[in-house]
Structures are given as structure tokens and as C-alpha cells.
Amino acid sequence: MPSPRLASRYAKSLIDLAQETGQLEKIYSDMMLLQGLTKSSKDFLNLLRSPIVKADKKIKIVDAVTDGRVSTLTASFNKLLITKGREAALPEIITSFINQYKELKNIHSVKLTTAVPVSDEIKRAIVTQLKNTSDMQNIELESLVNKDLIGGFTLQAGDKLVDASVAAQLKEVARQFENNDFVYQIQ
Predict the structure, then answer these.
(1) Cβ–Cβ under 8 Å, residues 115 and 149
(2) GO MF annotations for this entry (predicted)?
(3) Taking a C-beta distance cutoff of 8 angstroms, is the pair 132, 115 a contact?
């Protein structure tokens, strides 16, 4: 069962330790690697969540998978999680670490969703426009494709959403027709 408070505390402790040892950037890249691993390998995720596999076996397997790919601090952190029986929370801890890192470095994650793939030139123009019209200077743009939008785009930054999609405009027109008494009187 995911525990945001637990994940946040472990992530904060790891960030503090990484800052003290001057390894914050390395640990961030380790967390990105581990996030990719947990998202791409269902077997790895099942291993972490399995109550049947003993802790010493989990440590050996995780060490074998990450050997030479992560720092000694990250490897020690993984061992600590497994020893404490908190390894099932690793995906949530990773996500919390990445979010706290971005907040610390003032990096804003922005999601651009379009009906068709957009060029790098358009992405750069959007980032430039965001920098000019907001207080966001460090922007990490994630581009997604959703054909259900029909056309246009949606742009999400934090809790703000700009929906300039054709699908949203069509829904608004349909809503206006439903609420229009004049249309009912004609029938």
C-alpha cells in the first residue's frame, strides 16, 4: 500500500544526505535510472513487492541489477530499504525524491499534449513563451500525443491547465446547446 508520508520522509533524508556528501546530481541520475527500471520491468517491481523472497536474496538481486550503474550511496540506500522491509515503497520514494529535487532546483515540469507530434522548434517556442510570460525559468517540457484532442493542445504546469483543444471546444458547444432553452422551444 503506497504511503506518501513514508516516501516523502525517505526521499527527504536521501536528498539531505546527498547534499551533505556533494552527490546530489549523481543520486538524481541514479533515481532516474531506478525509476526507468521500476517502470519498464514488471519482474523487478514484483520482486520488490514479494513477501516470499527473503531480504538477503532481494539485496543480492538488486545489487546484481544495479552494480556499476548506481553510486555506493544509492546502493546503500537500497540495502537499507530492503533491510527495513520498505523496498515495496521504492517506486513512491523515487517519485518523491525526483519531485523534491525539482522543487529544490526550481525546475518546473510542464506537460504539452497535442493531437499530433510537434517539432522541436515548436517545443522551444512554447518554452520561450512560458519563460517570458511566467516566473518559470527552468522548464522541463514533456510532450505527449493524444489523438482524442482532435486538434489544438493542452498545457499543464503544476495545478494549472490550459485547454485549447478542439475536443474541449466541441464539449463546450455541446454544453451550451444543452443549456439553451431556445433550442427546446423550437422543437
Answers:
(1) yes
(2) proton-transporting ATP synthase activity, rotational mechanism
(3) no
Quickly name the fold that domain 4-103 has: Peroxidase; domain 1 (1.10.520)
72-83 and 24-40 helices cross at what angle (nearest 10)?
60
Is-contact 2 49, C-beta < 8 A?
A: no
Q: pTM for this one?
A: 0.80
The per-residue pLDDT for range 105-159, each reduced to its tens digit, is 999 999 999 999 999 999 999 999 999 998 899 999 999 999 999 999 999 998 9
Helical packing angle, 4-21 and 72-83, nearest 10°: 150
